[in-house]
Amino acid sequence: ARLREERNASAHLGTPCSRALPEAKNCRVTKSAVITPARGSTCSPLRALSTATPTRSPSRPPSMFAPHCAIVLGGFDGTTDHGTTELLDFATMEFATGPCMGTGRSGCAVALLDERRILVIGGYDGSCSLNTTEVLDPVAMSFSPGPLMGTRRNACAAARLDSRRLLVLGGSDDSVELDSTEVLDTMELAFSLGPRMGTRRNACSAAMLDEHRLLVLGGSDGSSDLDSTELLDVASMTFSPGPRMGTRRNFCVAVVLGEQRLLILGGSNGSTSLDSTEVLDLRALAFSPGPRLRTWRSGCAAVVLGAGDLLVLGGFDGSKHLDATEVLDATLSAVASTHGPRMTTRRSGCAAICF
To answer: Is the CB of residue 305 less than 8 Å from the CB of residue 311?
Structure first.
């Protein structure tokens, strides 16, 4: 049930990454290096949403604005590492085809740079792990090449530390699980070496607990799946041991719910995909069991909807890659989740973000 690791183990650092991907056949690169769809493409450069893009002040962080839609990026359907994306309009709760990325990416990470830029980071293109990134303009709905990382990273995690810095953590470079991190200067768009974690973590997850602390969770160190976590002090940029989860989890996803809770969903324990969740009390820094998902999901993604409910997307259930989604009530009650809208493509190892 381990998502994609058999393929990753056979890949090598330095393997040429020039293989033509199925999605790339339907997209062309213009002289300005912005990805636009070719004639007959199923990729859409622009989706007219039913709600207007809110006016945003550049002095305020993007997280202070209510999102009105989400984008799901890349992933693996059992055959192809996708460069396609899907847009979810919160007003209609329907998926529509989004713009194509320049490269197929499963196991990529995504983070919001500011109100006009979303960064897609690393991943696996079907041949090797990637050190490339792409920048999405959410208004024009077009991708352009982003800065190169110093290391190829598949199944990495990423989180924005503050208004000037974004941190990329762990992953695999096709030869070894990584304990290294990289810091992106979001103004200069240049990566530099970050602090080392205490443990190698491939397929980990990460989330900001508050403006002072980042938590990185689970993953695999190459010999076992992890239930450990690490806390990063943003001021000193040093890691220390964090609270231990109740279950070993790689390819899980972590989402902050309000100021009090962090929810960890799904993943794999090394032998099976998981339908369990855990809730971290951000004050006590202690985990407790959360509600069960409707489906086992390793390599899923999740976004917080406008009403505060949580939408869980895709993943791998142990036998098939999923196009199904489900909605968890914001109260995290024991009541079973409800079915969400179905994506147009099966996607495990996908990424998703609201804007």
So the answer is: yes
